[in-house]
Every structure is written in structure tokens, then in C-alpha cells.
Design goal:
The chain is mainly α. Helix content is about 50%, strand content about 0%. The protein contains four helices and no strands. The longest helix is centred in the first third of the chain and has 15 residues, at about 5-15. The relative contact order is 0.20.
Length: about 80
């Protein structure tokens, strides 16, 4: 899976979790929680969906790596190379 595909997956998961989320103007280097008004449960839903779809185990200590769209892609890229 390439970087663009990973980005699309993260956005798709966000849209599945929050149908009202406006992802069109999303800034890749800004915190997702601030831009989309995601709460901690929404964030956990994203992590759980990544686990469900790709069998990824994301340790709680790594959650800060998923703060922005860019950091999500950077974190997930090596883990989804073969997906």
C-alpha cells in the first residue's frame, strides 16, 4: 500500500466513524482531533478499525504517532507495505 492509499484509508475510516466530518480541507500536518473535533472515543474507533481491517496492533504508547494525517501515513506505511 502506498502513501496515497494509506491516506485514503485513514480518511475513509474517519468518514465511516463521523459521517459529518469535513475531510475536504484537511491539513495533513495539523492534528486530526482539532480539525475534525474528534473525541477520544472517535480516535479509539480509528485505531480499532485499523486493527480490524489490517490486523494491526497499535500499542497505546504509539497513539501520538497517529495525531496528524502525515504522521498516520508515516507510522502506517512500513506496517502496511504488504497490505
Amino acid at each position: 500500500m502506498n502513501r496515497e492509499e494509506i491516506k485514503d484509508v485513514v480518511i475513509e475510516i474517519i468518514q465511516d466513524i463521523d459521517e459529518d466530518a469535513d475531510t475536504d480541507g484537511l491539513k495533513a500536518d495539523q492534528p486530526l482531533r482539532d480539525q475534525l473535533d474528534l473525541d477520544s472515543m472517535d480516535f479509539l474507533d480509528i485505531v480499532m478499525e485499523l486493527r480490524k481491517r489490517y490486523k494491526l496492533q497499535i500499542p497505546e504508547g504509539d497513539y501520538p504517532e497517529l495525531a496528524t494525517l502525515d504522521s498516520c501515513v508515516n507510522y502506517l506505511e512500513p506496517r502496511l507495505q504488504d497490505a
